[in-house]
Amino acid sequence: MAVTAENLNDDKGPKILAVLWTLTGLTALIVAARMFIRLRLLKNFGIDDYLIVISMVMSFAYCGVTTAGVNVGFGKHAAALTQENFELAILLNTVSFLFGIVSFTIPKLAVTAMLTRILNPGLPQKIWLWLLVGTAAAVSCICIIILFTMCDPPEALWHVHLVTEDGATCKSVWMLVDYAIFTGALSAFVDLYLALYPITTLLKLHMSLRKRLALCAALGLGSIACAMAIIKCTQLKGLADKSDYTYGTADLVMWTNIEANVVVIASCIPTLQPLLELIMGKRTLGSYSNSGKYKQTGGNYNTGTFDRSKRSAVKDDLAITNIEGKESQESILRDDQLGQDQLHQDRAFPMGAIRRTDNVTVEYEARSQSRSAHGHHTESGSW
After folding, report:
1. Closest by alpha carbon to 94, among 162, 51, 136, 156?
2. Which of 238, 300, 375, 378 could bond 249 through an S-S bridge, CB–CB 3.0 to 4.6 Å?
3. 13-271, what's its fold?
4. What keywords are annotated for this sequence in UniProt (predicted)?
């Protein structure tokens, strides 16, 4: 964009801050709701939850560093800044990209962990999912390395006078742009794959069409993140605008944050059903608290008493997260199968249905005047 006297004072800084803090604040609320559900209601905090928390920390760091950059002139035309502020804005923006890249990479790991927990794919599919997401993460890390090694010495990346005055050398900026576009394209592909994979799996289940569509919609929100990644790729050419870097990369900064937050939101939406149940009055906080006695340990449910009728507690609801210590397969059994224990034991499932086995261990002790007897009973049921 040519800088003229009319547009010299253009400033995208306020727009940058409005977009970043509004969307990041909304994402933080959704993540807080997810943490409340996983810690307070279900008491089942998993690796995907830890990854989401780390991603939010990176997002806040990205917003903080970008805010500092805006305060020294980022978002304005370079011609309107002093040399000192121009170089400081470039430094802060370069550092912010470190947090930005990490903040949209980590949620993909969280989504993968959630999908493997919920859908329980076979070993080959599980290996492929982690290989795909791991490759995307490695490519993103290489992008960070390329960014900070563009110049020799590295500080010449933001101290632009070192190139003109002290003979510092920098690689062609288009090398960074091309690799960043490749990184963004791979990120978009991974987001789309993680959105489509559960859909292809869920559509094969024996359940009502309404439930299948609801599950597909909840787990397929990553397709929106794919669209955001594609839009971000169109803004990467701003990295090549060295003469007006602080203004030319402003949109890229916003879309990087948008992509990261959309991925986090998409990963959290499927986990929020218990909170929706509380709000709609379908359940009470006490019902979740009482279910804390059902602790999941390696697929076994160890408890003094086991009310088998509770298996049907969520038969009419969309259940993605673990409820009352049970995995999500609980809600994707056919309605006519739920609550019919003996029927499950007497006949096999048709092809394509999910088979689930719970091992229930009940220990009891009976005392008499003459001796103490200890019995141990193990019940295994499949449905």
Report:
1. 156
2. 238
3. Rhopdopsin 7-helix transmembrane proteins (1.20.1070)
4. Membrane, Transmembrane, Transmembrane helix
- Neighbour order of strands in the sheet with 357-367: 295-297, 300-302, 357-367, 372-382
Which tokens in the block code for residue 253?
């900064």
pLDDT band at 154 (very low <50, low <70, confident <90, very high): confident
3-state class (DSSP) for residue 379 = strand
Q: Are 350 and 323 in contact (CB under 8 A)?
A: no
Alpha carbons 316 and 318: distance in angstroms, whole number: 7
Alpha carbon distance 153, 338 (integer Å) = 66
Which pTM does this prediction carry?
Answer: 0.72
Backbone torsion region of residue 74, taken as left when φ is above 0, otherwise alpha when ψ lies between -120 and 50, otherwise beta: beta
In angstroms, the CA 288 to CA 270 distance is 18
Q: What is the per-residue pLDDT across 296-331, written as a single tens digit (0 to 9) for each?
A: 333 333 333 333 333 333 333 334 443 333 433 334
Q: Burial level of 262, CB count in 10 A (0-12/13-18/19+)?
A: buried
Question: Residue 382 pairs with which residues in a beta bridge?
Answer: 357
Q: What is the spatial distance between Cα 289 and Cα 41, in angstroms, rounded to a whole number?
A: 6
Alpha helices in the chain (DSSP H): 13-36, 47-71, 83-119, 123-148, 161-165, 173-202, 209-219, 222-234, 245-248, 250-268, 273-280, 285-290, 341-346
Do 186 and 162 meet the contact criterion of CB atoms below 8 Å apart? no
Question: Would the pLDDT of 294 be above 50?
Answer: no
Across the chain, mean pLDDT equals 76
Judge whether 134 and 112 are in contact, CB under 8 Å: no
Q: Where in the chain is the domain with CATH 1.20.1070?
A: 13-271
- For residue 161, what pLDDT band results from cuts at 50, 70 and 90? confident
Nearest to residue 253, comparing CAs of 98, 105, 141, 136?
Answer: 98
Using CA atoms of 83, 85, 88, 89 in order, give the dihedral in degrees to the nearest 10. -110
